[in-house]
Design goal:
By secondary structure, this protein is an alpha+beta fold. The chain has helices spanning 2-19, 25-48, 51-57, 82-91, and strands at residues 58-71, 74-81, 105-113, 116-123, 126-134, 140-149.
């Protein structure tokens, strides 16, 4: 009788597990796709001069930072806001000559933990390390960006 009871519990537990959706695997795939899309929209918006595409990728309180040299052994942190990035997306490549015909876009998700993620974006001239946050509406938005040129002598 004990064996039947144990087998019954095993069978009931198996049905319960089968009926329960896989919690994180599907969600993580969806999150990975959404995070990648936000990072891609950020860079592609600059390639094609699309303020709207950039706006969809950025959190309202975006802070983008890099270090900048004032001269020998003096530097400061330059900060760029969401509004400035929207202007950059709209105008930086308006003439179509700022990027090669096939621009480099390498997106690596470094980590995801529930509602926060870290991403590395390597573009033609620079690298961006991004922090993204999943909003209450379920959208992934870029909150912070730390960047530098590949050729750090350009930081003057």
């Amino acid at each position: 009788m004990k064996f039947i009871y144990s087998a019954g519990l095993f069978i009931m537990a198996s049905f319960a597990l089968a009926a329960t959706p896989l919690p994180d695997k599907e969600l993580m795939l969806t999150d990975k796709q959404a995070i990648t899309e936000a990072a891609r929209s950020y860079i592609v918006s600059q390639h094609i001069s699309s303020k709207e595409l950039m706006a969809g990728a950025l959190h309202p309180v975006l802070a983008k930072r890099t270090y900048w040299g004032k001269g020998k052994q003096q530097e400061f942190i330059m900060e760029t806001s969401r509004e400035t990035m929207l202007k950059v997306a709209e105008s930086y490549n308006k003439s179509g000559d700022k990027f090669p015909e096939n621009p480099r876009v390498e997106i690596t998700i470094l980590d995801i933990d529930q509602r926060v993620a870290s991403v590395k974006l390597s573009a033609d001239d620079w690298i961006d390390y991004m922090h993204l946050v999943k909003t209450a509406q379920g959208q992934w938005k870029i909150l912070n960006v730390l960047w530098q040129y590949h050729d750090i002598s350009k930081h003057q």
